[in-house]
């Protein structure tokens, strides 16, 4: 619908109302979810590159497209790389062990 406040739904089984009476309906509660991927190949955010030898060689971790929590990302990364979130800024901090590097 062009009007973003116009919602239509289908009831099954349908509700049969007397066509000669006037009816009103109100909505008490609606739970609506909108989600998106925070890791996406099309956005170039699905490859995490790191070195565990001060940049002499590089390894890649390729994530499949999806909506990942920080915990889920940490589960994929080596233990020497730890990602923590800052809720107030929606940013992350990447903590690296000695000799580890990341590149974006």
Textual characterization of the structure:
- With 104 residues, the chain is mainly beta.
- It has a three-stranded antiparallel sheet, with no helix packed on it.
- The radius of gyration is 24 Å and the shape is rod-shaped.
- Helices cover 7% and strands 23% of the residues.
- A hairpin with a 7-residue loop joins strand 1 (47-51) and strand 2 (59-62).
- The longest helix has 7 residues, at 70-76.
- The mean pLDDT is 89.
- It has one helix and five strands.
- The chain starts with 46 loop residues before the first strand and ends with a strand.
- 2% of the residues are buried.
- The chain has one helix at residues 70-76; strands at 47-51, 59-62, 81-86, 91-96, 101-103.
């Amino acid at each position: 619908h062009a009007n973003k406040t116009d919602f239509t739904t289908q009831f099954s089984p349908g509700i049969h109302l007397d066509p000669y009476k006037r009816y009103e309906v109100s909505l008490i509660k609606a739970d609506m979810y909108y989600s998106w991927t925070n890791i996406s190949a099309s956005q170039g955010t699905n490859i995490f590159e790191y070195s565990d030898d001060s940049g002499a060689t590089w390894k890649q971790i390729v994530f499949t497209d999806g909506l990942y929590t920080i915990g889920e990302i940490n589960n994929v990364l080596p233990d020497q790389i730890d990602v923590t979130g800052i809720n107030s800024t929606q940013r992350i901090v990447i903590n690296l062990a000695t000799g580890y590097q990341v590149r974006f």
